[in-house]
Design goal:
alpha+beta; 3 helices; 4-stranded mixed beta sheet; single chain
């Protein structure tokens, strides 16, 4: 679990990022979880955009974080910010 200070730090880092994944009508599936997990390993911090036509938009952040074992840093509107410490490609030092 992240502390409030760590989340604040990660939010400031994520502010300039663009979403690299979009969750659409199909919702979250195994393939998407696998791809988001690989992207988290490479980048550690990323944004996911939830499109208007996504039916299960309330559960999307929870499904992604559970599937990838990542922390949800924040949810603003339809943007989810995820963080997971990389095993081999560590770039972010948390306070």
């Amino acid at each position: 679990m992240l502390t409030g200070k760590q989340k604040r730090f990660l939010r400031s880092k994520a502010h300039h990022l663009n979403p690299i994944f979009q969750v659409g009508k199909g919702g979250v599936n195994e393939n998407m979880i696998k791809q988001v997990g690989e992207a988290l390993e490479a980048r550690e911090l990323l944004k996911v955009s939830v499109l208007q036509n996504c039916e299960e938009d309330r559960d999307t952040a929870q499904q992604l974080s559970k599937g990838t074992k990542a922390d949800v840093v924040q949810i603003i509107g339809n943007i989810i910010v995820l963080y997971k410490e990389s095993k081999e490609n560590k770039q972010i030092d948390l306070p």
